[in-house]
Amino acid sequence: MTPKFAKAASFLLAVASVSARSTPSAFVGxxxxxxxxxxxxxxxxxxxxxxxxEESVMSPKVHGTSEKPVxxxxxxxxxxxxxxxxxxxxxxxxxxxxxxxxxxxLNEVDKENPTKYYDSVTGKHLFTAPVGRTMEEYLVESGKHxxxxxRDEEVNWDYVRCLSNGECISVTGTHLGHNLPDKSGNxxxxxxxxVAGEPADE
Length: 202
Prior knowledge:
202 residues; globular
């Protein structure tokens, strides 16, 4: 085990001990945390989720399923080649389990406030987490499964869609990951390299 991975593992164990004393409330409409009310999109939260798309969204374009490569200046030290391959030339595979904890993500992510996650290709805002739960709960769930895991209310449905096979994508064709529902509802298992972009100039 590398020193960096050991450090990440120690951090996850630490937050696990905290979250064990609390109960997750990651559901659409939850009012347990003020951040739930703060994150809004143009899509009504009462609409059936996930919002689905047709396969045509992932049709071949200029650069794989996208119009251009991923950004060069990805956050958290994410690898450019890995990101470009997974985002634009891939429909089924993922960064290896635990990859997110070997980057600078755990050192740099805001532990006190929700973080916005941006498309590594377009810079569009895709996710905000944590919403409706604590940071500890978000990190422990993500650590348990091996990839950042988002819930319905943490998704910006203006730019995120799912296909009938569970693939989670952006509206412009970026592969993001997969929806793997569990007893708590939809769980979007997302590659960190796909949401490590800098925000686009609006």
